[in-house]
From TrEMBL:
It comes from Tengunoibacter tsumagoiensis. It is found in: Cell membrane. It comes from the Bacteria. This is MFS transporter. Residues 21-517 form the Major facilitator superfamily (MFS) profile domain. It is a multi-pass membrane protein. Pfam families: MFS_1.
Length: 529
């Protein structure tokens, strides 16, 4: 028989103040944000210092999220069994120690090993902070606490990008790991004073399910990372890993349906609130990822802004997330969940549409200000509500597993945004560029050759391009200009497609989401499988 799902509280409220618990979890969450995003900002510096090839740097950047995916569902299940605070402290300690080793790492190979372990450690941090908030704080404080948690993490992500760049430029990339060490020590101190929580009924651990989930998620996430190139799904290696992921996850579902104590209850997945929460996570994180990722590339390649300038451009998104989260409690009390979801999706849609309308060769910070504010505000409301939907549908016995599921779906949505937006931009840009030059009478073979070079570097040396294809420097500049226009139009088109995805989600929420019905079903025991 499968586990039944209830929303009955299994623990008494601890004496520790809610504020202490919340801020302990927020600081641990900031530690995770720093560790998960650090390599994306210091990768080039590592490559220069350790003489790493591009392939090694690429592995370093993606390895954390891959090993995180492998361990996250198992981390949630183990925490429910052996104690959420205990496992969270182990994760925080491991991330801190690994960051210390990274400071002194002599080779890129050693750093790859460290980052792989850091991803596993992160799996014991990110989902467990949310689980602890769910279990230890009163239900009336959930909306405010979750909104504040997510808003501050978005703000810390934006600010940390600037701080990391400044430290990297001033003291070198090794010094940036000191941020993780300091935050880890602070998190350990804060967490040591909060109460422990775990499932009251000690059930066997589903090790087969944990292993199958780890293999399946690694295959899926790593395959999507490999596909995030202009080659896309024509990359056989990427296709192989994605296929491995789907097959293994299929085996996981079969195993869970026959297991008495599954690591991921299928009865839980059947709850309407969980299904809608996962769908919201998938599409919202996809749309957000498409907008922020492609805007970042546009700023650094098309407008030739530095990484530090790019981080400053994106700050309105982070600050809007934080400011809106301060009013989350009042919003939840005043409006029902459905109205808030529709409103947040409309705000996000307006922001992404604003990016599409304002993007151009002469765009400045002020053109992006209002769209990024809308996206940031909409994202924090939608994410707060979808996390609440998933967490409230689970009993406190399953808080760790429910939080892990929420994180997994969000990670998949983020990975899909990078893959599909990269593929679509490459495809649309190539088609527009080819069509324009064919109209000018340029031979198809010459177009394909120049396209190969231009997709590698948007701003090649014009003299080299001219020498390679037997044309003048003036003609080379004209070709690059055509490609730049094609690239710009393709990014705009991807923004519109992201807005369309949000519109579809908005219609689904409007016509298929009934908060009272979902709440009633989530509060009742599910029938056994």
């Amino acid at each position: 028989m499968s586990r039944s799902i209830t929303t009955t509280r299994a623990f008494t409220q601890p004496a520790t103040s809610s504020t202490r618990i919340l801020w302990a979890c927020i600081i641990a969450g900031i530690l995770f944000v720093l560790d998960s995003t650090l390599l994306s900002w210091i990768g080039p510096a590592i490559a220069r210092d350790l003489h790493a090839n591009p392939a090694s740097v690429s592995i370093l950047s993606s390895l954390f999220i891959v090993t995180l995916a492998a361990a996250i569902l198992g981390a949630g299940a183990l925490a429910d069994r052996y104690g959420r605070k205990r496992l969270l402290l182990i994760g925080v300690t491991a991330e801190t120690l690994l960051a210390t080793l990274a400071v002194f790492t002599p080779t890129v190979g050693a750093l790859v090993f460290i980052r792989a372990l850091a991803g596993i450690a992160g799996a014991f941090v990110s989902p467990l902070t949310i689980a602890i908030i769910r279990v230890n704080l009163p239900e009336r404080e959930h909306a405010r606490s979750m909104g504040l948690y997510l808003g501050i993490l978005n703000l810390s992500s934006g600010l940390s990008a600037i701080v990391i760049q400044l430290i990297n430029q001033t003291f070198g990339w090794r010094s940036t790991f000191l941020l993780i060490i300091l935050m880890g020590l602070l998190a350990w101190f804060m967490l040591s004073g909060i109460p422990e929580s775990s499932a009251t009924e000690q059930k066997p651990i589903d090790w087969r399910g944990i292993i199958l989930a780890g293999i399946g998620l690694v295959g899926l996430i790593y395959g999507l990372n490999l596909a995030a190139t202009p080659r896309g799904f024509s990359n056989l290696e990427a296709d192989g890993f994605i296929l491995l992921g789907f097959v293994t996850l299929g085996l996981l579902i079969w195993h869970e349906s026959t297991c008495d104590h599954p690591v991921l209850s299928l009865a839980f997945l059947r709850l309407p609130a969980v299904q809608m929460g996962c769908l919201i996570a998938l599409i919202v994180l996809f749309a957000q990822g498409c907008a922020i990722f492609q805007l970042t590339l546009y700023l650094q390649t098309y407008l030739e802004r530095s990484p530090l300038q790019t981080a400053l451009y994106l700050l309105p998104f982070a600050f809007a997330s934080y400011l809106v989260c301060l009013f989350m409690d009042q919003l939840v009390r005043r409006f029902n969940r459905k109205v808030l979801l529709i409103g947040s999706l409309l705000i996000m849609l307006a922001g992404i549409a604003g990016l599409a309308l304002t993007l151009g060769p002469d765009s400045t910070f002020w053109h992006f200000l209002l769209p990024l504010i809308c996206i940031g505000g909409g994202v924090v409301i939608a994410n707060t509500l979808r996390v609440q939907m998933i967490m409230d549908a689970a009993s406190v016995e399953l808080a760790g597993e429910a939080s892990a599921l929420s994180n997994i779906v969000a990670d998949i949505g983020g990975a899909l945004s990078i893959v599909l937006s990269t593929l679509l931009v490459s495809l649309f840009a190539a088609q527009a560029y080819t069509r324009h030059l064919l109209q000018l009478g340029v031979l198809r073979a010459h177009i394909d050759s120049s396209l190969t070079l231009l997709t590698k570097d948007l701003q090649p040396t014009f003299a080299n391009l001219g020498d390679q294809y037997g044309i003048s420097e003036f003609q080379a500049k004209a070709i690059v200009g055509i490609y730049e226009q094609a690239y710009l139009s393709s990014v705009v088109l991807v923004f519109w497609l992201s807005a369309l995805a949000l519109l579809v989600l908005l219609l689904l929420v409007a016509f298929l989401f009934y908060p009272h019905k979902h709440k009633k079903r989530a509060s009742c025991k599910s029938s056994p499988l």
